[in-house]
Input
Amino acid sequence: MSTDDTDHRVLLAELAEQEERLQFTEFDNDTAIYLGLHLLTAARSRGLPLTISVRRNGHRLFHASLPGTSPDNDEWIERKSRVVDRFGQSSFRTGTHFRARGTTFEESSRLDPDRYAAHGGVFPVIVRGVGPIGTVGVSGLPQAEDHAFVVEQLAEFLSTRS
Output
């Protein structure tokens, strides 16, 4: 087994653990807005050029774009959200899964890359006992940083709600 194989397996296990741990007991429109505002406040405090989106069942409930972003970031979020909706896991985990198999999402998924992007930054909104019901995501940083920001902020947000 190569070092890359081991690295991918470790990362995939970590990404799966995040999805198991970062789950809601309930999720309504108000929760989506509060979550979006939480991410917005954190991004502003760090001066990050992020576009932020929170959706439930395909309905965009929160959207904000900070200075330094462009309409391209809106498109990235949409493409990454489609991956989460289709695969039921984070966009970063999906892309990592394909890389661990020695290929890329673009080469092997047979999905239109103009509509789907398995790059980090969009995470499933999971309701415990129900499953994925939406997405929370950002675009504007390198993919691993987009993912890390969402995970960090989601963990912080959930810790204040229990």
Q: What stands out?
A: The chain has one domain: 3-161. Helices lie at 3-21, 29-46, 71-87, 91-100, 105-108, 143-161.
